[in-house]
Design a protein that fits this description.
- The active site is at 132.
- By secondary structure, the chain is of the alpha+beta class.
- It has a single domain, classed as Alpha-Beta Complex (Peptide Deformylase).
- It has four helices and seven strands; from the N terminus they run H-E-E-E-E-E-E-E-H-H-H.
- The chain has helices at 26-39, 124-136, 147-157, 161-165, and strands at residues 46-48, 58-63, 66-78, 82-89, 92-102, 104-110, 116-122.
- A hairpin with a 2-residue loop joins strand 2 and strand 3.
- The protein is globular, with a radius of gyration of 15 Å.
- The two termini are 26 Å apart.
- The relative contact order is 0.19.
Length: 166
């Protein structure tokens, strides 16, 4: 098992748009394995490659019994229906804020054999798919908060030990 160290708010890799995966080799397989291993501990729903310092378009997920990964994901469908759902992030630990997300999402990408993969989810899985794809586009869930909630999050963040170390 290869648990990778997480990157936290303030690390430039988290605000950088990721490159697509173009080589499907041992390095890509190793990255996927590390993402799957690192998302497995309780309390984790998803993990994008930049959260472990890698600027490639790959994420893993472990939500309500659904476990997997997607390489080069693209959101291809979002429901018009949205809801406000509590959201947190491994790269912004200890903070949770209501975030508006589509209730249903569909992501299309590929697997390690460069074969098509489609992941469809509602509620928490839909939230995860949107959240992790955002990471690959250089966005954090904080970027989706209302102005007042973002200000509140920034204030709370400054009080956290991990923020002072970062």
């Amino acid at each position: 098992m290869a648990m990778r160290e997480l990157r936290y708010f303030g690390d430039p890799v988290l605000k950088t748009v990721c490159d697509p995966v173009t080589r499907f080799d041992k390095g890509t397989k190793s990255l996927v394995t590390d993402l799957l291993d690192t998302v497995r501990p309780d309390g984790r729903a998803g993990l994008a490659a930049p959260q472990i310092g890698v600027g490639l378009r790959v994420f893993s997920y472990d939500v309500e019994g659904q476990f997997g990964y997607v390489i080069n994901p693209e959101i291809v469908e979002l429901s018009a229906a949205t809801h406000e759902i509590g959201e947190g992030c491994l790269s912004v630990p200890e903070l949770w804020f209501p975030t508006v997300r589509a209730e249903h999402a569909v992501v299309r990408g590929v697997d390690l054999r460069n074969e098509p993969v489609v992941v469809e989810g509602k509620d928490v899985l839909a939230q995860c798919l949107q959240h992790e794809t955002d990471h690959l586009d250089g966005l954090l869930y904080l970027d989706r908060l209302t102005k007042d909630r973002k200000r509140q999050a920034m204030g709370q963040m400054r009080e956290k030990a991990w923020f002072r170390r970062a």
